[in-house]
């Protein structure tokens, strides 16, 4: 397929997913209106927070599904939308845990409701807690309804149970990863590289890659071997993707990523980069700066220089390449048709293309 | 039935519910262990927080189910356990929203994890946020799994969909009630009596009474009229129960309820009592005391005296009686067999017996 075909496929899939999500939010909004305008407004805020992303998880479901020969795009879009809604729930709650009030350059749920409160003259700490309280409620709604999108897919019986099991497992492991992330942030000794990889695999790769790919494969009626191969691919490409994400958070091109490269450094985010750096004598020169909320651009450059000089950047890049290559290997056996490799080659290439 | 029979029925039902919940937590704990000891420990904390309650919601499911002739107690216990798990999720998150660290005299999820952090030398604000973060995760797990207990009930097809719909609606309205509760706590003007009743009906009565009763009736194959009658009963008895709860929170016998009667006054809890009192000239004498975290026992007595003198207590008691009587009326038509009235008479009597 040439690039033009890829875009067409992607657009067609995307439209299915958008339709499913639009119908879900429209229904929910209608139901909520009967319980009062402020509740309807909360649903609108939730919908806004569920929009604007890359719809990454539905893309994974549909890629696995179509490349294994599935043709009921509406059913696949429902399963994809279920993962998207789970993602929305998890990031809304993750933002509460991280005390973040902004996402993608605009206020998130916490931020929107904090701002309404401050505008009404409520003092900031109370307004922030109000924003976080509403975000807990909003995340609960997204979480509780993600199952139901699978129910609406028209899939029944054992197949539905298997899809529920996969969604269940995705959420179950993500909660473990979130717990370990919270643990890292308060414990004295810094996490090791292996601990970071394990945490990121649990917290993000499971529900973003492994789960959606397995669900798409199961829905397509893939063989046990094909399902296993795509799950393995998902786990490894998910870890690679996460490491690349952490690299871009520090070394990325702000113009291309749309994110400041000071955010992660100011937050003191625990990544593979940090796990590699700590313990190195040269890191001690900048470790006091790391995690400072008022870090300047110049101080950020100093940290970056150290991370380059002691090889942390190179280490993380090699690790990401490693996981991306392992992911690709999962796809090259006889268990999968060539269509699957065709489908996922661009994704592996994109991950590899983002590391030097 | 004499009292002895009632206790025997109640014990038998209770045992079924406990078995279902024990099996669910045992499975989850086993799954969690594979992802690490701290995650398994979180599941133990969640199980502890799901225990020790009155299992009120499963009781409602089973009472509706058996009084309408249902005989598969195991299926009913699964549905009851689903509501119990939903309840656990909602109170764990409600405690985060209310910044409570204690429930039933012991640390709740937030409290347990806050205490672990302070013991490790973490400063209190960070430790509190850590406790609340873990409680968000724990509540998410309980919430996400409540659906699945219905899946495990062995009920399939349309019936399962209807049970899911009822659980879905219960959670949907509870979220609206929680939102309005948060809104009340920050807005300038105090809520009216009607607003309080509406909020309590949404936040608590729906998922504690109306939903469980409807689910039990649907599972028993009750007629549409029987299901509607039990839903109406549930809504009204739920509101009555909530008003009584608010009365006991201020005027109760601490020895009997196990709760301090200063808690609600110190919290400044918005109840029917308060909605009636505000605006009355005599309330102005004590309104500054209301909501003070350091309220003394003597100051509490002063507030109580005013609430009695201006008739707020009497008003709330009459309102509770009113709703309890309306609830009973929903059961007296021809749509329901006499067994249903027999089953629920003691509950109505208990509510009425708690108001003068």
Summarize the structure.
By secondary structure, the first copy, chain A, is mostly helical. Chain A is 76% helix and 1% strand.
Name some characteristics of this structure.
homodimer, 356 residues, mainly alpha, Farnesyl Diphosphate Synthase, two-stranded antiparallel ribbon, 15 helices, 2 strands, globular
Plain-language structure description:
Two copies of one chain form a homodimer. The first copy, chain A, has a domain at 1-161: Farnesyl Diphosphate Synthase (Orthogonal Bundle). The first copy, chain A, is built from 15 helices and two strands. Chain A has helices at residues 3-33, 37-49, 56-67, 73-97, 109-119, 124-151, 157-186, 193-219, 224-251, 254-257, 263-267, 272-277, 297-309, 312-331, 338-353; strands at residues 102-103, 106-107. The model of chain A has no long low-confidence stretch (mean pLDDT 93). Chains A and B meet through helix 2, helix 4, helix 6 and helix 7 of A and helix 1, helix 2, helix 4, helix 6 and helix 7 of B.
